[in-house]
Design brief:
335 residues; alpha/beta; 5-stranded mixed sheet
């Protein structure tokens, strides 16, 4: 997917927005699209916000006549719960929450990226500087998220299970506090928390595994989702949303825009811009060009991901077309 980073300038310009002397015009088709408001859930990190905030700031949602209302959440399962209550229409999820999509609780309509942002971190002082050293130790994680997913895979690599550790389920912020205070022996978390923990721990912190450790077994995906009924009833609306989103993806994937994009995110979530700049290489960022030309690979990613969840008992095998709307991706990225 890294090859997609080389084809961005023409993609960003190939939109229906025409800027001339400060004026913006849109096509007749876009102008006739019904005005709609979409309640959007995001997580406070670069991976979740970079493409989304780019689409907001550059007016790509305005082109689609969409009003975007943003709400912050800590993790994917919580976002899905908010969708089930009706307060959120679309949202971003990491690897772990995809099992809920496979089980029919949500539908995927846009691939965000292939991630390498999850990690299991140990401590030399605590004796968890090897995977085998995790046995019998207290480990912090967030259930139902990519944190749990990578922890289970890491334990399996050493012939261990969750029964071989004392697993402490907590939210992402508390994981950082617990690890840095020494109240747990190791942790499983994601960027930017993993980067903060490793920086603060210095020589004592050891990254035991990340997503690429298991690249021969599975692929760690992030996606944009909606409730199944909402996706069925609002196909065209999701195409419009995804079309704007992928234009944002195209913009952020060009690293010459990193400083600008991270500045936008920093303003939104009140985080140091450098912390966000440290995250710009934690994934292979999807672009509209990749979706257009590699849909078989995209389907293969979701199939491979499902195999891993089926093998660990998180779900039963089901056709990926049952919960992934590949047609929305294709329509949104069509030239």
């Amino acid at each position: 997917m890294r090859k997609t980073w080389k084809k961005l300038a023409s993609l960003v310009m190939a939109t229906s927005m025409v800027v001339c002397g400060g004026a913006m015009t849109v096509s007749a088709e876009e102008a006739s699209a019904e005005k709609a408001t979409i309640n959007v859930a995001y997580m406070p990190d670069y991976a979740s916000l970079s493409g989304l905030i780019s689409a907001v700031e550059l007016g790509f949602f305005d082109e689609e006549n969409l009003e975007i209302e943003l709400t912050e959440f800590a993790d994917g399962p919580t976002i899905i719960q908010a969708m089930e209550s009706g307060s959120i229409d679309v949202g971003y999820i990491g690897q772990g929450a995809h099992k809920l999509c496979i089980n029919g609780q949500a539908s995927i309509f846009a691939l965000a990226h292939v991630s390498n942002g999850d990690a299991v971190i140990g401590s030399k002082e605590k004796g968890t500087d090897t995977i085998e050293g995790l046995k019998g130790k207290t480990i912090a994680y967030s259930s139902g998220t990519s944190s749990e997913d990578i922890l289970v895979k890491t334990l399996t690599k050493a012939g261990l299970t969750m029964d071989d550790i004392t697993a402490m389920d907590m939210d992402a912020t508390n994981i950082v506090t617990a690890m840095l205070s020494g109240s747990v022996d190791a942790c499983a978390t994601w960027v930017p928390n993993s980067l903060k923990i490793l920086e603060e721990m210095g020589d004592d912190g050891i990254q035991l595994t990340d997503n690429k450790t298991f690249i021969d077994q599975t692929v760690s995906l992030a996606s944009w989702i909606a409730m199944p009924a909402y996706a069925e009833e609002n196909h065209d609306l999701l195409v419009r949303f995804a079309r704007a989103l992928y234009k944002g993806f195209d913009y952020r994937a060009d690293h010459s825009h990193d400083d600008e994009v991270c500045g936008w995110i920093a303003d939104k979530i009140k985080l140091e811009k450098q912390t966000l700049l440290d995250q710009v290489n934690v994934a292979d960022w999807t672009t509209s060009d990749f979706i257009r030309n590699n849909m078989d690979d995209v389907k293969g990613y979701y199939e491979l991901q499902q195999v891993s969840f089926v093998e660990n008992g998180s779900c039963e095998e089901t056709p990926v077309e049952n919960y992934v709307f590949f047609d929305i991706m294709e329509e949104a990225c069509a030239e």
